[in-house]
Amino acid sequence: VLGEHIFNKDGKHGYEIRNQLVEQFKCLEQQSESRIQLLQDLQDFFRRKAEIQLEYSRSLEKLAERFSNKIRSSREHHQFKKDQHLLSSVNCWYLVLNQTRRESRDHATLNDIYTNNVIVRLAQISEDVIRLFKKSKDIGIQMHEELVKVTNELYTVMKTYHMYHTESISAESKLKDAEKQEEKQFSKSGDLNVNLLRHEDRPQRRSSVRKMEKMKEKRQAKYSENKLKCTKARNDYLLNLAATNAVVAKYYIHDVSDMIDCCDLGYHASLARTFRTYLSAEYNLETSRHEGLDIMENAVDNLDSRSDKHKIMDMHNQVFCPPMCFEYLPHMGDEVSAQQPVQTELLMRYHQLQSRLATLKIENEEVRKTLDATMQMLQDMLTVEDFDVSDAFQHSRSTESIKSVASETYMSKLNVAKRRANQQETEVFYFTVSTCFLLDRYHNQ
User: Fold this and answer.
1) What is the per-residue pLDDT for 3?
2) 43, 188 in Cβ contact below 8 A?
């Protein structure tokens, strides 16, 4: 406790300073406790987040393994592996599974970083906060003791000054009393004619005057001595007062700030490194995810129905390979001959077929145009860019607005039903025309 006497003497100002010094430690202790609580909450948060990451990693691994086992047991997988005829659609499916495994590994890595890096850093920072507060408190106690010493010295000097000043006032009062008595004595002497005094009263009168002069001289000397002591004590008090004020000012302006700096030593820098570790892990998770998705996107860009059709036909070439042409088999040595009546008939038939082929060609071209136009309509329906869902991830919007946007999107029930109905209607028309187009080839043989 700082110089109780000096603060009680100085009144309210000193009382406030004493309370401030007591509250300073309370404030720093509360700050330390709040930091420890913050660090504990962060540890608990990242510990649970690490558990969630590990659970998610294991779930992804099980999901990928489940379908990978199904693929490995399928006949198509062995054929793709053997012939290296991987369909573009199947390649996308395999890449989805590879991306799932990649995300599983990445989330397991995130769990390891949280558990063995981030949480460890936070625990170390918490230990540093406790240790540095204790050391800063020790330094603060020493500074307070020095402040007590200085203020106690000020109190002692002040009491000395007050004592000498009181003695000086007392000596001055006695001196003034002596001077008044002397003036009174001289006043009486002036009223009486010395010649009128009796001869035997004159020595007594002179003795009284000498005593009065000696008393005045003695009191004058005492006053001068006390006045000098008071002046010196006042000077010492003023010098000590200035020094004490300088020490107190230095404590509040510089020392308190330095003591807080001791408490803060490395706290913000260490916390920043911890959060940057977290950011690095999350950013690298996203980088790894984007790398895998880029591979996936390239495979999606390479989806090709024509290429897949050729690969399927190559894989099953014995099934799709055209059979050998039928050969002419003469019956019992019969030979082909062109007799005149038959030749004329054949020539007439040839011209009829040429005319019919020209008509069919025109008709087929019209049907082909219809098929191409219908196919283009189907392609437009099937290639519409309805895959952008970025609006659903606008975090600045409220939950209600996100729901309303989702309900009005391309995938809303009303839009889906309408689009599916149009698509199926167009497909029916396309297959009807295609059936006629294909079967007419056989009917017109």
Assistant:
1) 40
2) no
